[in-house]
Specification:
This protein has two domains: 112 residues, Endonuclease Iii, domain 2, CATH 1.10.1670; 113 residues, Orthogonal Bundle (Endonuclease III, domain 1). It has 243 residues and is an all-alpha fold. Helix 5 crosses helix 6 and helix 6 runs antiparallel to helix 7. The chain contains twelve helices and no strands. Bound molecules: iron/sulfur cluster. The site of iron/sulfur cluster has 14 residues, from helix 10.
């Protein structure tokens, strides 16, 4: 059971928009009803790249490398570059054999492609030396890999292995704060808040649903609140301009 009961009104209640009422206390936010609405409405939009890959049977190694490539890079570009790399090399041993110059060439022009090429090679070396060429299914072991932060590690666990995790990227951080569901300054703090408060049944899918909402409707500047399917629940914290 979640908090849908909190949004029921009696006949005498005036219809107060949440934005006018200010941020709701987090424990009164109707997360169950909001997630149900997003489950129904978000499939109509283009899905985030890494989730598409997870759905198409990509290995945890593919998810790991594609997520690293996607950092500070548009999904549309990663969608071209990741398959181009995997067509040439898609295991730790074959990527390591490419060497830094060739790998950088193959992943150009993703953001920070030289740094990412170095990190990917270091990761491949560690996977071969310490994990028999497999990607570990453990948050702490993933976080110990070079260039792997909490977003990437959680995405490998959820999209790669189907294990519980909450992948908080800029979209999840921005939107859950706009809703008033959390009040945090950084994605890492948002992840900790969500781990304490978000019902486990939503952990894996919140990233896919909120990245889709963020890419299509709840943009960083001037979100499209007039067409947002969860506007009825959103406190619009910090939103000064919208469409
Ligand atoms: S688009 Fe507007 S109403 Fe919808 S979640 Fe974002 S800020 Fe809230």
């Amino acid at each position: 059971m979640h908090d849908e009961s909190n949004i029921r009104m009696t006949a005498s209640d005036p219809p107060v928009h949440p934005a006018a009422a200010g941020p709701p206390a987090a424990n009164t936010f109707p997360i169950g009803a909001v997630m149900a609405t997003l489950r129904k409405t978000m499939p109509a939009y283009m899905q985030p790249l890494v989730d598409q890959m997870g759905g198409e049977g990509a290995t945890p190694f593919h998810i790991l490398i594609a997520t690293i490539l996607s950092l500070r890079t548009k999904d549309t570009l990663t969608a071209v570059v990741a398959p181009r790399l995997f067509a040439v090399a898609d295991t730790p041993a074959t990527i390591l054999a490419l060497g830094e110059e060739r790998l950088a060439e193959l992943i150009y022009p993703v953001g920070f492609y030289r740094t990412k090429a170095r990190s990917i090679l270091q990761i491949c070396r560690i996977l071969l030396d310490e994990y028999g060429g497999r990607v570990p299914a453990d948050l702490d072991q993933l976080l110990a890999l070079p260039g792997v932060g909490r977003k990437t590690a959680n995405l490998v666990l959820t999209a790669g292995y189907g294990l519980p995790g909450i992948c908080v990227d800029i979209h999840v951080h921005r939107i859950t704060n706009r809703w008033g569901y959390v009040q945090t300054k950084t994605p890492d703090a948002t992840e900790l808040e969500l781990r304490a408060r978000l019902p486990p049944e939503y952990w894996i899918e919140i990233n896919r649903l909120l990245v889709t909402l963020g890419q299509n409707i709840c943009h960083p500047t001037s979100p499209r609140c007039s067409v947002c399917p969860v506007a009825w629940a959103c406190a619009r914290v910090g939103v000064t301009r919208s469409r």
